[in-house]
Specification:
30% of the residues lie in helices and 22% in strands. It is globular, with a radius of gyration of 21 Å.
């Protein structure tokens, strides 16, 4: 009798879950995030694991500045796919403002399901041809995704009149995403190889340098110092590296390592340590996707993000995600030139730096490559 009762309850619960699953689209969620908050949805989407992205794309979503949903696995999932680098902002233990408690309905993912294993493996497969290609994956993956949607009304990080951060935005890298999908199941997995052929014509003879065994922070400081005193580009590099603070300084920047691919409860409230200004910046580097000197480029990228969020330059006050990303990538290019790197390719095959470019053409070529990358691959718009 007990077995029969258990079976009836289990069947009833399963039906309940099915009834609660909403069939929708990426664009519908992004057009009205709050209406989907906490709901279990089913969407068909293209998933992308880039340099600082782990997202479900929505290419035709109208005027949304950020046309992606951040993707996360449930806490405790041990999987490989995720961004190469991620910066996450949260209130420190001594943050003076109110931090509302967040309650989420638990989501369970079948990690042993063959579709999920294929999905995660494809998204974790790097592209490895032609010099340094930062965060470049071999595949994009389309799939049917079921999961819980978490949303905020506005992903922008708010500042008060004095320039002090008073809120913490949304999800993912730099808290820039208004919606997050915490994965429950995946099916109908199909992959497409990303086309790097255009960049490969210029990079095929280049070989990525470095072993990854060097001190990336020391290397970054050395590269910044290679510029003459007062040189604007050198000062920009020094500012990015300086965001991490001096050795053993507790300035609120915490460095970790791994794929940064789970929705962890500890990231949604106050942190466990204090900070001079009540802010914590957790930077996570995925070493499996940052071979050789790529870790140094990633460190500079993350440092520029932190510096521009924490202490915006006068011309950068209130900058949106497009401008923040643009400046960070420019800083990476400066770092690449300082290291005497031959080429640098961005995800999707955008050649952002080539040592043989004529000096008169460099600024325009870098600007064009970064803006095309951000618009076409990261789906960000000014």
């Amino acid at each position: 009798m007990k077995r029969f009762v258990t079976l009836v309850i289990a069947i009833g619960f399963s039906c309940c879950l099915c009834a609660q699953t909403v069939d929708t689209t990426v664009c519908n969620i992004l057009d009205n995030p709050q209406s989907f908050n906490g709901k279990i949805v089913r969407i068909k989407g293209t998933v992308y694991a880039g340099f600082d992205q782990f997202v479900v794309k929505g290419a035709d979503c109208g005027i949304n500045v950020n046309k992606n949903i951040w993707l996360s696995y449930p806490e405790g999932t041990k999987a490989k796919a995720g961004p190469a680098v991620m910066v996450h902002l949260q209130p420190a233990r001594n943050f003076a403002g109110d931090v509302p408690a967040v309650q989420r309905t638990a989501v369970e993912l079948d990690k042993n399901n063959k579709d999920f294993k294929q999905f995660d493996s494809l998204l974790a497969t790097p592209y490895k041809k032609g010099g340094m290609c930062l965060g470049c994956n071999r595949y994009e993956v389309t799939a049917t995704l079921v999961g819980r949607v978490d949303t905020v009304a506005n992903a922008a990080i708010p500042y008060d009149k004095s320039g002090k951060i008073i809120g913490f935005g949304g999800f993912g890298h730099m808290n820039a995403y208004s919606a997050r999908l915490v994965l429950q199941s995946v099916s109908d997995v199909a992959s497409t190889e990303v086309d790097y052929s255009k960049a490969l014509a210029d990079t095929k003879a280049d070989v990525a340098t470095g072993t990854g065994d060097t001190d990336s922070m020391a290397t970054s400081r050395k590269l910044a110092a290679a510029y003459a005193a007062g040189n604007p580009q050198g000062e920009q590099l020094k500012r990015a590296v300086g965001a991490f603070g001096k050795e053993n300084e507790k300035n609120g920047v915490v460095v970790g390592f791994g794929p940064a691919n789970v929705a962890a409860a500890k990231d949604e409230g106050k942190g466990a340590v204090d900070s001079p200004d009540g802010l914590l910046f957790t930077v996570t580097f995925n070493k499996s996707r940052l071979e050789g000197d790529a870790e140094t480029r990633a460190l500079v990228f993350a440092g520029e993000n932190i510096a521009n969020l924490r202490n915006p330059l006068p011309q950068g006050a209130g900058a949106g995600i497009f401008d923040l990303e643009n400046r960070a990538w420019v800083t990476v290019v400066l770092d690449s030139f300082a290291s005497k790197q031959k080429t640098l390719t961005l995800p999707g095959g955008y050649l952002a730096m080539n040592a043989v470019w004529p000096p008169a053409d460099i600024n325009q070529k870098v600007e064009d490559a970064i803006e095309s990358f951000l618009s076409n691959e990261e789906l960000l718009h000014q």
